Amino acid sequence: MTSQAAAAHAATTEDFSHNLAAVRQRINAAAASVGRDPSTVRLLPVTKTIPAERLRLAIAAGVDTLGENKVQEALAKHEEFKADYPHLRYAVIGPLQTNKAKFVAQFADEFHALDSLKLAETLQRRLEAEDRRLEVFIQVNTSGEESKSGIQASEAAALLEAIEPLDRLIPVGLMTMAANTTDEASIRASFRLLRGTLEELQAAGAPAQFTQLSMGMSGDFELAIQEGATVVRVGQGIFGARQYPTTA
């Protein structure tokens, strides 16, 4: 039950309302197919490469969180929108170098790619300086692909324990990207490994708020929901096919 990744290109608030409603309908159907309450699944719009003028239309249609892979692009959008849309949340969902942790600490509400104690400690220091806190997801490489970031599932318990003293970080769950394949069994295996890892950590005494599974994107979020996702990261399903700048 893999899904069509990209929606029609959205150019008006009405287009965005239509696309958002279509994605939410699919979320509801996927949840219902395994007896889950659809309200337990949060849609995280992925807004990378989307310019501000289009995002304003999407916000008018109901987008309330911006998910960005690159922290500097996310920071620029925060600066653009903070006066007009103070309610917006910002989620950094891509890998982060320690030298850019200072930017995340300034504005982000969520970070979905925590993969080392060094990065966690750097974020802690930066968040102390900003007097802020940050929800974090530990990223796990569940596919075995070298192109993907994240720690091994077997390392998650040690990292979660190591960041416990870092009081500016709020560990809320795990994140993964499924195997890059059209094979549904392989995709489900990635998601099941993440869910199993979460269950093991909870059984071992993880913090009470450590309940979230950030997994599933435009092409596979329905499978992710069936395997337990609580956050699905959807870009092209809302905005349409991404348009990258051309290079000479």
Automatic annotation (TrEMBL):
<dbReference type="GO" id="GO:0030170">
    <property type="term" value="F:pyridoxal phosphate binding"/>
</dbReference>
<dbReference type="InterPro" id="IPR029066">
    <property type="entry name" value="PLP-binding_barrel"/>
</dbReference>
<dbReference type="InterPro" id="IPR011078">
    <property type="entry name" value="PyrdxlP_homeostasis"/>
</dbReference>
<protein>
    <recommendedName>
        <fullName>Pyridoxal phosphate homeostasis protein</fullName>
    </recommendedName>
</protein>
<feature type="modified residue" description="N6-(pyridoxal phosphate)lysine">
    <location>
        <position position="48"/>
    </location>
</feature>
<feature type="domain" description="Alanine racemase N-terminal">
    <location>
        <begin position="19"/>
        <end position="242"/>
    </location>
</feature>
<comment type="function">
    <text>Pyridoxal 5'-phosphate (PLP)-binding protein, which is involved in PLP homeostasis.</text>
</comment>
<comment type="similarity">
    <text>Belongs to the pyridoxal phosphate-binding protein YggS/PROSC family.</text>
</comment>
<dbReference type="Pfam" id="PF01168">
    <property type="entry name" value="Ala_racemase_N"/>
</dbReference>
<keyword id="KW-0663">Pyridoxal phosphate</keyword>
<dbReference type="InterPro" id="IPR001608">
    <property type="entry name" value="Ala_racemase_N"/>
</dbReference>
